[in-house]
């Protein structure tokens, strides 16, 4: 059955160029490097990151996770950045579920415990949405978080991703099904 719509963005929109660094004031978002493994391991040792991302990580898995990002960029399925202060890794932010024909992507983020409370996540999310709209041409950037995670809700709102509603019982966590709050920003939002 032929699609009656044309793809909003063509193949090669991401892969046709190298993954760039993103400037976020005194933060620098840069592609992951193999020597970032200790920071990733430290992240997945943190109870809050384990809780909300429902994942643990061994050294080998951290290496594989870091190695996976260039391929995801080439396949245009995802893009991950280390959030840094220019030197140290403070967190991660990434585009997931990249859908170029529909010009949208999901965002995921975490910040290491010592770097929290300084708007690191908010500033990184603002820089990433600006990149997604202005340089990639996405139409919609969205995320969802458990309704039991108010810090993530604040990050989304402060970065201009408006709350759209709640998906009931939509994600399984270690303690069972959680209601998930959906946020999104459109390129046309002011
Ligand atoms: C959520 C997370 C990314 C926030 O990172 P951060 O850099 O500390 O976030 P920011 O400093 O940009 O903003 C945090 C906001 O949440 C608020 N906040 C923090 N803890 C909170 C809590 N328990 N309840 C309500 N608000 C809270 C802060 O006051 C701040 O709001 P403000 O800007 O209005 O003052 C970080 O806490 C984290 O990595 N948590 C574990 C993993 C996670 O939750 N990932 C997201 C999954 S959807």
TrEMBL record:
<feature type="domain" description="N-acetyltransferase">
    <location>
        <begin position="27"/>
        <end position="189"/>
    </location>
</feature>
<feature type="compositionally biased region" description="Low complexity">
    <location>
        <begin position="1"/>
        <end position="16"/>
    </location>
</feature>
<dbReference type="GO" id="GO:0008999">
    <property type="term" value="F:protein-N-terminal-alanine acetyltransferase activity"/>
</dbReference>
<dbReference type="InterPro" id="IPR051908">
    <property type="entry name" value="Ribosomal_N-acetyltransferase"/>
</dbReference>
<feature type="region of interest" description="Disordered">
    <location>
        <begin position="1"/>
        <end position="21"/>
    </location>
</feature>
<dbReference type="InterPro" id="IPR016181">
    <property type="entry name" value="Acyl_CoA_acyltransferase"/>
</dbReference>
<dbReference type="GO" id="GO:1990189">
    <property type="term" value="F:protein N-terminal-serine acetyltransferase activity"/>
</dbReference>
<keyword id="KW-0808">Transferase</keyword>
<dbReference type="Pfam" id="PF13302">
    <property type="entry name" value="Acetyltransf_3"/>
</dbReference>
<protein>
    <submittedName>
        <fullName>Protein N-acetyltransferase, RimJ/RimL family</fullName>
    </submittedName>
</protein>
<dbReference type="InterPro" id="IPR000182">
    <property type="entry name" value="GNAT_dom"/>
</dbReference>
<dbReference type="GO" id="GO:0005737">
    <property type="term" value="C:cytoplasm"/>
</dbReference>
